Amino acid sequence: MARLQKLLLLLGLVLNAQAMGNAAQDNQQIIANTLITTEAHDRPNVVFILTDDQDLHLDSLSYMPYLKQHLLDQGTFFRRHYCTIALCCPSRVSLWTGKAAHNTNVTDVNPPYGGYPKFVSQGLNEAWLPVWLQEAGYNTYYTGKLFNAHTVENYDAPFPKGFTRSSFLLDPFTYQYLNSTFQTDKDAPVSYEGNYSTDVLASKAYDFLEDAVSEKKPFFLTIASNAPHSNVAFKQDWFGGNASGDTIITSPPIPAERHKDLFKDEIVPRTPNFNPDKASGVSWIAGLPKQSQNNVDFNDHFYRNRLRALQAVDEIIDGVIKRLDEYGILDNTYIFYSSDNGYHIGQHRLQPGKECGFEEDINIPLIVRGPGVPKGKVSDIVTTHTDLAPTFLSLVHGKLRADFDGAVIPLDAPGLDEAQVTRHEHVNVEYWGFALSEGDYGQRWFDNNTYKALRVIGRGYSLYYSVWCSGEHQLYDLINDPYEINNLYPTNHSAIFTFEQVNSGKSASAKLGTLISRLDSLLLVLKTCKARECTHPWEVLHPSGNVQNLYDALDSRFDDFYELQQERVSFSKCEKGYILESEGPIGAKAYSIEEIGVRGGHLWHELV
């Protein structure tokens, strides 16, 4: 009623103005501005804090007190959130476009298969979130790292589209904590040598936030820190299509001076997969030597500096929250916190780095607080980076695109409860090309780190399955083997695999080969999926709709279809990028025999 009265009052002003000659135009402009301000106040703002290479499984969140105070305690933690490719640039492109890497065709950090030039050449500079946000009526602000190979040479070729204001970290200085270069709006790049890069980032973020509030228009602000990424010095050939271990020098991240003495006794968590006595994994990982004590000591130092580097990010969280509160808009602002990919240090004998499909690399932080978001909640629904662009657009009442490969993440209590039952249970994971060992020890560069993989998390099962370009396979049961040590694929496929608590406290079982055939067919769909195929892959395999998840697919009626009729995921060649003709069978067959009867039947062998 109050709003209606206000609108009627404004309408009266318009009518009076029409009778007052030349004064009419001024009054009409006042009315228009008032209406815009009212609408802006009703639409939420969004702040997205994005870190670089931040782990979830090495417990980094526990060392960020402001994150706990302002985000974990006041919002929802999505602990089954995943990146779909564990590498900076392609992961970020998937995040901002809502598309899997095999659909963006940005699969590396540098040309010819990745980096900012590849992003532009694929036409994505005209079709990504900031452009869509502006179309939805939002002002857009961005400061920090955007993409790899976004450099002091190509920053204006062209400028990234879709930003009201921007200030980007540029290569080759992106990862130099004490020698950063930022490029603001359409200005030339400016060096901040000697200044701590995260503090420079904070200053720019606060300035943009002040600008955004003064515009009296809803806004989307991204703050993208380079922490806790390793400190990196590049040789010029790194950006010339000749990247190798000889063209990059990595060292532990550098903390701010005020944080350099923190956490003196902290060490990498000594989980069962940390520097194990027996090698694990496949391909080049299976040949890694056990790390020496000197190696482990150095990696503990590397870990401590990651925690220290995150303290300046934690301070940004506090600074942003306090300013939003002072501006009176905290209650109408969503704050998202995530990272582009995860990180490993010592697990499976790996030197510091990412690029693998292990849980440390792909399962990453996602925390959200804002209007209607449950406080202090931990959600187990499966989400991925391809879900973020649709989620952001839904929050701002923008138009969702039919070609999104992700699905909107529910953020209120009823939606989260419903998603526990209805949301998909899978994550599509993919990778092409190199793996890099960071730090002082071990071989620095590994080729043929190309694989297709998936995570499936449902009632009674939590599985990781991958197929490598070398022909090797991995299958881990993360309920009984959460650290992914025991690869089940090479074992007897006639052995019985048991699912726990799938039906009213009962267990169920199936032959390992039966399980693998279903996982492989699901991966066959996902590795080239588009749009709805990516969120509803079982519809491709079972168009009649009577299979909704892995549990349904294990029905014995489908054994012949999966084990004999369906092609298997494979590669004909190890490539450095997405070369479709080298990736084996394309597209899965659909189950075409008339599917009659109740869902289930059931199945395999149930045990009380």
TrEMBL record:
Identify the InterPro entries for this entry.
Answer: Alkaline_phosphatase_core_sf, Arylsulfatase, Sulfatase_CS, Sulfatase_N
**Keywords on record:** Glycoprotein, Hydrolase, Signal
Residues that bear 3-oxoalanine (Cys): 88
**Which reaction(s) are listed as its catalytic activity?**
an aryl sulfate + H2O = a phenol + sulfate + H(+)
Classify the source by domain of life.
Eukaryota
Annotated EC: 3.1.6.1
Q: Which residues form the signal peptide?
A: 1-19
CDD domains reported for this sequence: G6S
Which Pfam families does this one have?
Sulfatase
Report the GO molecular function annotations: arylsulfatase activity; glycosaminoglycan binding; N-acetylglucosamine-6-sulfatase activity
Mind telling me which SUPFAM superfamilies this protein's record contains?
Answer: Alkaline phosphatase-like (SSF53649)
How is the protein altered post-translationally, as described in the entry? The conversion to 3-oxoalanine (also known as C-formylglycine, FGly), of a serine or cysteine residue in prokaryotes and of a cysteine residue in eukaryotes, is critical for catalytic activity.
Q: Which family does it belong to?
A: Belongs to the sulfatase family.
Q: What is this protein called?
A: Arylsulfatase
Q: What is the lineage of its organism?
A: Eukaryota, Fungi, Dikarya, Ascomycota, Pezizomycotina
